[in-house]
Amino acid sequence: MITLALAGKPNCGKSTLYRAATMAPAEIANYPFTTIDANRGVAYVRVPCPCTSLAHRCGVCADGIRYIAVHLIDVAGLVPEAHTGKGLGNQFLDHLRQADAIIQVIDASGSTDIEGNPDNPGSHDPLEEIPMLKTEMAMWLFGIIEKHWPKMQRQAQSRSFSIYAGLADILAGLSIQEEHVMEAEREAGIELRLTASGDLIEFSKILMRKAKPMIIAGNKADLASPELLTKVKDSGAILTSGAAELALRTAAASHMIIYHPGDASFSIPDKGKLSDAQKAGLMKMKAYMDAHGGTGVQEIINRAVFELLDMIVLYPVEDETHLTDGQGRVLPDAFLMKKGSTPHDLAYQVHTDIGKGFLYAIDAKTKMRIKESAVLKDGDIIKIVSTAK
Ligand SMILES: Nc1nc2c(ncn2[C@@H]2O[C@H](COP(=O)(O)OP(=O)(O)OP(=O)(O)O)[C@@H](O)[C@H]2O)c(=O)[nH]1
């Protein structure tokens, strides 16, 4: 399953964002494994469910909204020089190891300094936080490479030794592959074999960027001044309010409001049941959402998955006419897969045996056979015919 990590300095709101994003939407609260351990949980991307255009609705989605699970990690807060052991030190880097993509959380309200100490809103520049994470991650990676470099350079004297494979091997735990190493070498304009370890910092930065793509959440946006909001938004960050999202999901869970994560707004079914304080709190959130089109929490998860990681959603079925599985359930499964995936890749994703016994696939929309190597499109509903059952 795809893993996203929330990383940033202490007090920028990571845990609040994490709690909000991993609080299962009311309709799917009984999904298994909502919390895996203290800092690893299940969050969801939101997509329109294809069943909305069918005669039979699917029973999985909530009012035509399909939520698909991804893992989310709440990474320990990091401070400058964390790679040397400062603050909680390398703990955060060990968490990041497991991530496919990183959501860097910054305090858009400027109400905490670079080490996370509280201050008045607007007293710090949120954009100063952005290079810190990149630097710490790159220096950590550099530290690993540096340790192995003398040996690697000796081995590189031998013609049969590939420095790309060697480096990828050392960094396999970080999901760094040979192609990443080659691309980073090219981009850094160096020849790895001939480069002294001390000159590998820029290379490490590029390599980290390739292996762990990053998107920025300008969090606590509800507390930020209009000037800071503009500045943070112009930097390309997505504005978020983890606190608002958490409050909305909590209110929805107790049926105080109707809200699906990612909605631009919410409704109150029975105002009479709310206290004046609750009404005032909700109105404040409504004003914020009206101004920003929502809390931004769902948006950042969707963008991390679909834009940073280039994923599409595919729906495997066993019966291409009724779009059901073997038990008659309509569109029960939705898989997140890399853009460019083929029916054969999907077959493997469903089950290794289905992949091994793959015969052919049918596009349920056109009822036509498609080639094993055809490139699938986002939203495709596919029947796989395999020797395996
Ligand atoms: N106004 C506002 N406050 C927030 C928001 N998110 C978090 N906070 C507050 O900011 C403070 C820090 O939030 P946390 O979620 O604990 O921050 P953290 O980054 O996990 O902190 P560490 O665990 O120290 O790394 C708490 O008082 C939160 O209530 C937000 O979106 N808006």
UniProtKB/TrEMBL annotation:
GO terms for cellular component: cytoplasm. Keywords: Nucleotide-binding. InterPro entries: Beta-grasp_dom_sf, G_OBG, GTP-bd, P-loop_NTPase, TGS, TGS-like, YGR210-like_G4. The keyword Nucleotide-binding applies. It comes from the Archaea. GO terms for molecular function: ATP hydrolysis activity; GTP binding. This is OBG-type G domain-containing protein. It comes from Methanospirillum hungatei JF-1 (strain ATCC 27890 / DSM 864 / NBRC 100397 / JF-1). The lineage of its organism: Archaea, Methanobacteriati, Methanobacteriota, Stenosarchaea group, Methanomicrobia.
